[in-house]
Amino acid sequence: MNDIRTRLLAAFDLEHKEHLAAIREALRAVEKDPAHHPDLVEIHRRAHSLKGAARAVDLPEVERLSHWLEAAFIAIQRGAVPFDAAARDVVRRALDAIEDVVAWAPRGGGEVDIAEVLAELTRMGGEGGGPEPVQRRTAAAEAGVAPVAPPTTAPLPARAVDASQSAALVRIRSAGLERLFTAAAGLLPEIENQSALVAELRELRGEWRALERSWHAMRPRLLRGGSHDATGTAGISFAGDETALRLSSFERRFRALGASLDAAHRAHDRHLWSLRRWGSGFQDEVRQLRMLPAESQFSNLGRMIRDISRAQGKEVEADIRGLETQADRVVLQRLKDPVLHIARNAVSHGVETPQERVAAGKRAAATVRFEASVVGRRLVLRVEDDGRGPNRAAIARHAVERGLLGADEAESAPEERLLDLIFEPGFSTAPTANEYAGRGMGLAIVRREVTRLQGSVTLAAREGGGTVVTVEVPLSLLSQRLVFVAVQDDILAIPSNDVARVLRAPADTLFTDLAAPTIRLEEEDVPVTPLAALLGYDGAMPPGNGAPLALVILRTAGRRVALVVDALMATRDSVVTPAEEVGIDAARFLGTVLMDDGSPALVLNPAALSPRPGMALPPLVRPVDESARRRPHILVVDDSITTRTLEKSILEAHGYRVTLCVDGREAVETLGELEDVNLIISDVEMPRMDGFALLQAVKGNPMTSDLPVILVTSRASDEDRERGLDLGADAYIVKTRFDQNELLAGIRRLL
């Protein structure tokens, strides 16, 4: 029985919203155009259907309200009651009461007070003589066919009444569910990592084919005159010939190895296809487990708006839309308080009193609308009111008082910049603070929480009067599509939801005669700035010389900016470890992801990268700080990313400039390009060119022979130490006994 009631309530939840929305839309149409004639028969039908549906799910308060709402519309149809502003106000409050009862009472909340509005409906409906069926005249009726009475309840959706489709509910620990989410989130990146094995296997097969061709070319010569039959196979007899026997054995094993390699490649392809198919489906299903309708967090928003407005002596109609929109449970939970605060602000700061509204030529009742929707892969929440709108003069005055803007700057500041100041901590234009608003901290907290959710929040004036606050965040935080870029020696990631596009453009195509360099994209001038400069990296961007620039077009808070990066690396799904868990600045970084080699990459927070309205962007060509030029410049050469990162962090913390190389060959090439390297720290065991060879190259070149070189290696034998020192190393440090103080002391001694 409980299962039947659950399904009935689910169907009623959808049905009553549809009826309320239709009646409210009719009220708005009349208020917008007093000459408009609403379809009163249709409105009455909806009230009648609502009454029957409420009876079916045993909601007596809703049934009584709907009954007298139906009676009121019958009275209006008969002309006994005018459909004036007073009548519309009673109807609106009845609809609000129905919404409150449905949202609150069945969920265990307190009893909703409906006595006052029920009494007013009774007075209206009583004048009309009470409810009775009112139907349109149809062709069947005119033909004398008896009309079929409408059902007392609307038919339930198939998905609600089909028992075979209803899912059994089970209780599980939330911690266990979160671990399942984490495991699923980590699965897809691992599947993508398997794709790298495909390339490696393909490369191995190519190498084997090349060896096979070389073998066929060498084989006749190795067999020293062996004859071949018509098929090309050597006809030599191997009996008694040890070399021939060994070659024959080698050939069999070589061919077996090739066959095994082919089989492994085919098997891996099959397994990867299956893994992608089932793994992706598994992650999608698990992601759906986290998805809940917005109603789960915002079902009581309408009642809260009405309660606050009544407490402040204001008349406000709450228009709540899109509650069926689904998003990640965690995202919705963390947005609940920000949205409630925005709605409170709309009522407290935005909406005028009924007397003020009437004096301004508005209707006495204001409207606060909340709407949830999905755009792309982002959740968009809008809170809109038709109140007085932002007070630009008060904002500018308060900004000057707090020192955020100069007096002249405040007069000429664009509206976008002024409105953005509202999110500054402690910024409030309210003359006094109350229990709902006025202390100036709420919107700052809203922005901070939205930013942590990798989103943006903007405030703008509403066309026709009022204010619109828009919040945009990712639909889910389970795993994300990231764009990986290179900036100097670092690999960084940017959420793809905030990336409009990536492209390469010649530097000489930029417009540089403006206040900031721009690039023309889709009929819009987009400002261009180096990502390195936004992050505060040392060094200057080289001036444009026609070479292509790698650009990431970032889109946040409705604005676009083109970020110049050193290279565009890849795009893939990855699991982001939150910034709070790894101890990095959550204002600038969302967290970290693991790269294929096990090293972490920082995930940038796009909201922090996008400059605030009115802020100047760093120049495209950044002059090098002279103090940076005077700092000793050290070249660190090591094929281990862990060692490179460790040594770089130690050296930079002590005031040195650092350039990284992965092996000796890259170091030699770098030395040919840089003229200000003061010292080299190098590993010994490296691919392509090891540390000893690098040492020989450095000391053998008259241009670099005086350059100090410190070898930091795991080779601890006396022979290796003597070899390094004999080749000209100025210091030899063993990694197993690595002491940063020993390294720093050696550097200071040599410099």
TrEMBL record:
All copies of domain Response regulatory, residue ranges: 633-750
* Annotated Low complexity bias: 136-147
Q: Which reaction does it catalyse?
A: ATP + protein L-histidine = ADP + protein N-phospho-L-histidine
What Pfam families is this protein classified in? CheW, HATPase_c, Hpt, Response_reg
Boundaries of each HPt domain copy? 1-108
**Name assigned to this protein:** histidine kinase
Looking at its record, which EC class is this enzyme? transferase
Its Enzyme Commission number(s) read: 2.7.13.3
Keyword Aminoacyl-tRNA synthetase listed? The answer is: no
Phosphohistidine sites (modified residues): 48
Q: Where is the CheW-like domain?
A: 479-615
The lineage, from the top, is: Bacteria, Pseudomonadati, Pseudomonadota, Alphaproteobacteria, Rhodospirillales
Q: Which residues form a coiled coil?
A: none
> What keywords are assigned to this protein?
Kinase, Phosphoprotein, Transferase, Two-component regulatory system
What organism is listed for this UniProt entry?
A: Azospirillum formosense
Enumerate the residue ranges of region (Disordered). 126-157
Q: Which residues are modified to 4-aspartylphosphate?
A: 683
